[in-house]
Amino acid sequence: MPPRKLVAGNWKMNGLAASAEMLETFRRAHPAPACDVLVCPPATLIAGLAGRGTALGGQDCHPEASGAHTGDISAEMLRDAGAEAVILGHSERRTDHGETDALVAAKAAAAARAGLTAIVCVGETESQRDAGRAMEVVGGQLAGSLPPEADPAGLVIAYEPVWAIGTGRTPSLAEIGEMHDFLRARLIERFGAEPGAAIRLLYGGSVKPGNAAEIFAVGNVGGGLIGGASLKAEDFGAIVAAAG
Ligand code: PGA
After folding, report:
1. Which residues share a beta bridge with 201?
2. 69, part of any domain
3. Which residues on adjacent β-strands are paired with residue 224?
4. What is the pLDDT of residues 20-66, one digit of tens each?
5. pTM
6. Which atom of ligand 1 is nearest to the CA of 87?
7. Fewer Cβ within 10 Å of end Cβ, the chain: N or C?
8. H/E element holding 186?
9. 212 CA distance to ligand 1 centroid (A)?
């Protein structure tokens, strides 16, 4: 049997205490999903949403466990609040906060230290794709964003072309397949056949109820990282159902 897919919702900087209701609506409609489901709300909501039957994740963490870093949140704090995973190196963090591959790798090491699954994001810009450099860029990000001691069991990789995030545009299924096959080959090269084959690869960028099933059917796509559509119970539910 193929492994269960993972559908992860990335709420980004959206959500107040009242968003618990949206999650309740989703849960009532999908009490026993056939895929793994993870919701990554803003850190302020994690503790309040924990323990209600949906796995939770953070959207970023600091490399250190504690210290004088005003405004930052550590992997240990996310874990303490009830998170099981953390998104790292999302293109919005790479752009808005100048995060480098090396910083993302340090954060991934912190996630492992705290017992969190690290969802490491990679993806090319439109001009990089147009220049025929998508694989070179994504391969470089992958190599640089994983710590030397990375444990494949605690890793998920999300391929998110920057130009597809929040734009309603997606690569063709052939392009998605090509990139996921490439990432799989790189992971097998790095971690060996079995561990490299077991790492889940997520596609992210304008996944919607209308395109989720065909994207999830592409070889080596192990699920999705969902931004905008994860904010509506009905849309998120339809995407979760498409992954079953
Ligand atoms: P989107 O975002 O689904 O709104 O395109 C995906 C993401 O940024 O993870």
Report:
1. 157
2. no
3. 7, 203
4. 999 999 999 999 999 999 999 999 999 999 999 999 999 999 999 99
5. 0.98
6. 9
7. N
8. helix 173-191
9. 13
